[in-house]
Specification:
By secondary structure, this protein is mostly helical. Strands 1-3-2 form a three-stranded antiparallel β-sheet. A hairpin with a 6-residue loop joins strand 2 and strand 3. The chain is globular, with a radius of gyration of 21 Å. The two termini are about 20 Å apart. The mean pLDDT is about 90.
Length: about 170
């Protein structure tokens, strides 16, 4: 159903919708793809960039999926899926935990080798991101702080609802 305020014709796919965030998402994806390419060029195959934090934290100690998810700032479900993929990639192994519902995750020998690379890669990636931002003439910390301050003045939900009122009104 279209309303009088809807653009005609309606977009048929996400790439046709207006999106202020899409260019940033595209740049982020290019960077993630670059990290994956760097892994391949270093001979680390079958390993996704999203595994790096979990492998790095497991380098400190074995832990449950729940603890690992909390440390990495993701949901238990997301970490459970990552652990399954990391197990298939030969990075981790698991054993029963304190109760029947928990598993303790630990690095394999391959996982420990990769962890050493991930620690170095994390800081190299941060340096590369800062370098790209500097070349682009932007200060990502300044941009984030400015946007965060704007959201302190008015929440994003309130802004969306205000704009919806302007569209509906």
């Amino acid at each position: 159903m279209t309303t009088s305020n809807d653009p005609e014709p309606r977009p048929k796919r996400v790439s046709e919708l207006p999106s202020t965030m899409r260019p940033l998402k595209t740049v982020r994806q290019r960077m993630d793809d670059g990290i994956a390419e760097a892994y391949e060029r270093m001979g680390i195959e079958g390993v996704r960039p999203r595994f790096s934090m979990a492998v790095m934290f497991l380098d400190d100690r074995d832990m449950s999926i729940r603890d690992l998810a909390e440390r990495c700032g993701v949901t238990h479900s997301a970490m459970s899926q990552s652990v399954s993929a990391m197990r298939k990639a030969g990075l981790v192994e698991s054993e029963p935990g304190a109760d029947a519902r928990s598993r303790v995750i630990s690095l394999t020998a391959r996982g420990k080798e990769v962890a050493a690379v991930f620690w170095r890669e994390w800081y190299a990636t941060e340096a590369a991101v800062r370098e790209v931002a500097t070349e682009a003439g932007v200060d990502l910390d300044e941009i984030a702080a400015g946007m965060d301050a704007a959201l302190d003045r008015e929440s994003f939900a309130d802004r969306v609802l205000r704009h919806l009122g302007a569209i509906d009104g």
